[in-house]
């Protein structure tokens, strides 16, 4: 029984480790492709929506690099997506998880 569990856990761990490394590589690629800085993305998000920024990151989930800036406004958290190539705000959603 323990051998069967080990045979499952080790390959599963390797799969998740490779997925994490791949995600990091995608984020690094997105960072290098970005035409605006993280600070400029934060400024664009706050100018467009207001609030206090408290978290920001870059990702490549939509085939084009984008920043996700989280801001607090009236005790609610909003995630604001900023195109990393143009600096335009491309989406806003309330984040109920934070």
3D structure, described in words:
It is a single chain. With 98 residues, the protein is an alpha+beta fold. It has two helices and four strands; from the N terminus they run ααββββ. The protein has a single domain, classed as Nuclear Transport Factor 2, Chain: A, CATH 3.10.450.40. The protein has a four-stranded antiparallel beta sheet with strand order 1-2-3-4. β1 (52-59) and β2 form a beta hairpin.
Q: Quick one: how many beta strands?
A: 4
The largest β sheet comes out as:
4 strands, antiparallel
Task: Write down the secondary-structure element order.
Answer: HHEEEE
Strand order of the largest sheet: 1-2-3-4
- Described by the principal axes of the CA atoms, the overall outline is globular
User: How many distinct folded domains?
Assistant: 1
Q: Structural class per helix/strand content? A: alpha+beta
Secondary structure tally, helices:
2
CATH class category label = Alpha Beta
Average pLDDT figure? 81
- The end-to-end span amounts to 40 Å
Please report which band the strand proportion falls in: under 5%, 5-15%, 15-25%, 25-35%, 35-45% or over 45%: 25-35%
Helix content: 40-55%
Are there runs of 5+ residues with pLDDT below 50, and where? 1-20
CATH architecture: Roll
CATH level 3 topology = Nuclear Transport Factor 2, Chain: A
* Assembly of the depicted chains: single chain
Radius of gyration: 18 Å
């Amino acid at each position: 029984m323990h051998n069967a569990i080990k045979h499952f856990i080790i390959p599963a761990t390797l799969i998740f480790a490779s997925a994490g490394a791949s995600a990091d590589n995608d984020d690094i690629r997105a960072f290098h492709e970005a035409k605006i800085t993280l600070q400029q993305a934060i400024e664009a998000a706050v100018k467009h929506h207001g609030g206090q920024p408290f978290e920001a990151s870059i990702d490549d989930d939509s085939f084009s690099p984008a920043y996700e800036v989280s801001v607090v406004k009236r005790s609610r958290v909003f995630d604001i997506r900023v195109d990393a190539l143009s600096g335009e705000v491309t989406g806003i959603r309330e984040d109920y998880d934070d």
